[in-house]
Amino acid sequence: MPYTKKHKMNIRHKILQSASQAFRASGIKAVSVPQIMSGAGLTHGGFYAHFESKEQLVAEACKSAMEDTVARLGSVAEQTADGQKLTAVIESYLSATHRDSAEQGCIMPALAGEIARSSEDIREVFTDEVSRFLSFVSGLVGQDEDKSIALTATMVGSILLSRSVNDPELSNKILSVCRADLKQRTAGPVS
Fold this sequence. Notes:
Mean pLDDT: 93
């Protein structure tokens, strides 16, 4: 008896979740299809019933991961008073929890360097997902696209640097200084 469409969609979702976590934690090249399938509790033989290639999986995992990030930060914003939404998002993004949980965090600091050297198809999907994030931030800063780009680049760079150094004090200072700077730059009425 063949599997139902719902069952197949659930399996596909498990594979995407496993892949997006593994890619964010270890990088795309370091993670194999068998590792992804094992992380989803499946054997690697079933991979091609769901995806044509690892490249297709990477593209879809980028989309899934960004959807998760925007949903999580959107929830933070929704639970905050109107004048503090952007501050709450900055604090959540530039937190030790986000820094220390790459496998659950934003794909931009986790994968941007590797994506830059990926295929045009993967870069196109990544570009769409960066645009999705910029639109989310733009909504928090009064539809100011330039401000949203500057905020996003600072947040992503801050997480990337804080994860890269091996000095915990310096890592924490990068986060706190950048958090304070962004909050100071964005204080006041939304334009």
